[in-house]
Amino acid sequence: MELVLDLDGLDALIHVLRDDGRVVVGPVLRDAAITLAELGSAADLPSGWGVETGPGHYRVRERADTAVFGHSAGPQSWKRFLHPPRRTLISSDGTGFQPVEDTAPDYAFLGVRPCDLAAITKLRQIVGGRTPFVVAAQCTEPGEVCFCASMGCGPAAGPGYDIALTERIDAAGHRFLATSGSDEGAAALARVPARAASPDDIALAVGDVEAAARSMGRAMPELDLRDLLAANRDSAHWEAVAERCLTCGNCTMVCPTCFCVSVEDTTDLEGNAERGQRWASCFEIDFSYLHGGAVRTSGAARYRQWMTHKLGTWHDQFGTSGCVGCGRCIAWCPAGIDITEEAAALAGGEQP
Questions:
Q1: Alpha helices, DSSP H only, in the chain?
Q2: Residue 136 DSSP class
Q3: CA distance 308 to 300
Q4: Cα 202 to chain center, whole Å?
Q5: Is the bond into 155 cis (omega within 30 degrees of 0)?
Q6: Which of 6, 36, 96, 242 has the highest count of CB atoms within 10 angstroms of its CB?
Q7: 3 state SS of 7
Q8: DSSP codes of every residue in 203-247
Q9: Span 195-242, pLDDT tens digits
Q10: What are the residues whose beta carbons fall under 8 Å from the beta carbon of 158, sequence distance 6 or more?
Q11: pLDDT tens for residues 267-319?
C-alpha cells in the first residue's frame, strides 16, 4: 500500500498509534539538539530544524522550509529504549531474590532513519525484547558525517519497518509518501486521511532517495574490512590514532549497536540488595580486567579492539557488520576521529 499523507495525516497517524495503546517516540528539538522523546502530536516534531555535523561537531540550524525530518542522526539512538542505559536485573528484600519484571511500554518509533532501522535489527538479535512498531523516515538529505550507503544501510529503508515515509516539500505542498511494510502498518494507514499515491509521487520519492545516496560525502573503503583489520593488527597506525584518542568512550555511547554492559551489585544495611547492569565501554581500562590486570592497557589497543570488533569480528559473531554508517561516532568524538578515514589509512598500507 502506498499513500500520500499531509501534515494532518501524519498527525492522525500519531494519534492512531497512541489510541492503540502505544507510546509514540520520535525526534524533538530539545537542549539545542534533535533528541528522542514521547510525541503527543505532529506539532512536537522539529519542524523547520536541521543540523550541521562534522568531526567533533554538531549544531542545530534553522531550515528555510518546514520539514520535520530534515535532519540526520542526533546524539541519541533508539538503543536507549531497547537496551536501557541502566536496568535492575534481580532484587532482594532479605527473604530471597526475585527477578525484576520488564515494564517497558509497547513502543511505536516514528522517524527512524534507515541506518537506525538496520541498527534496531542488529541490536534485537543480541538483546532480544519486544518488537516496536516502526515508522521509518527515508533520507533525502544525508548529513555531513553519514556513510550509510557504503555500509548497505541506507538512505533507503531496508526491511523491518511497518511504515516508511518519504518527506517532500515543493510547489505541490508538504507531503509524505507512506509505504506499508507489514499488515499492522497497512491497517494503521487505513485509519488516517490520505490519498492514493500516483506514479509521479512514487517516482519523485525514489529519485530523492537515490540522489541522497549519490551526494553522500563519506564512504568506507570498497574492500573486505575483516581482512583489512586482521592484516593490520600490528600496524603502527593504531599508535597514531591513540595520540589523538581520549579513550572517553563517547563513540560507544552514541553508537546505535554497541551493547556492552557491566553488572553491579548494591546492598544496604536493611538487607535489601539489587543486581543491575549499566552500559559499559571497551574504552574503559577496567573493561578487560582479568586475573589481576587489564588485558588492553593502552589507548591504541582499546581503539583497535573497538574498530576491529565493529567492522570485523562482528561478522564472526552475528553474520554482519556492527556498523550502520550513521556517523555518530565521528560527530561526537571530541578529538574528531573519523572511522572512515582510519579505515582508509589502513587500506592505504600504513605499516610499521
A1: 7-19, 79-82, 114-127, 148-151, 183-189, 199-214, 225-231, 237-242, 250-254, 299-308, 314-318, 328-331, 339-347
A2: E
A3: 12
A4: 26
A5: yes
A6: 36
A7: helix
A8: HHHHHHHHHHHHT------SS-HHHHHHHTTT-THHHHHHTT---
A9: 999 999 999 999 999 999 999 999 999 999 999 999 999 999 999 999
A10: 114, 117, 118, 121
A11: 988 888 999 999 999 999 888 888 788 888 899 999 999 999 999 999 999 99
Give the Cα separation of 79 and 251 in Å (integer): 14
Q: In angstroms, how far is CA 158 from the centroid of its own chain?
A: 14
Residue labelled with grid coordinates 534496531: 120
Handedness of CA 27, 28, 32, 35 (dihedral sign): negative
Distance CA 339, CA 321 (A): 14
What percent of the chain is modeled with pLDDT above 90? Answer: 88
End-to-end CA gap in the chain: 56
Backbone angles phi, psi at 242, to 5 degrees: -65, -25
Is the pLDDT assigned to residue 8 strictly greater than 60? yes
Residue type (1 letter), 158: G
Look up residue 64 and give its three cell numbers: 528555510
Residue 168: DSSP 8-state:
E
pLDDT confidence of 94, banded at 50, 70, 90?
A: confident
* Radius of gyration over every alpha carbon of the chain, rounded to an integer in angstroms: 22
Domain ranges of the chain: 2-88+104-214, 225-266+280-347
Identify which of 52, 56, 33 has the alpha carbon closest to the alpha carbon of residue 338. 56
pTM (2 d.p.):
0.93
Reading the block at residue 95, the C-alpha cell is 527473604
Q: Per the structure block, which three cell numbers stand in for 117? A: 532501522
Q: How far apart are CA 107 and CA 18, in angstroms?
A: 9
Handedness of CA 185, 189, 190, 196 (dihedral sign): negative
User: In sequence order, what are the beta bridge partners of 174?
Assistant: 169
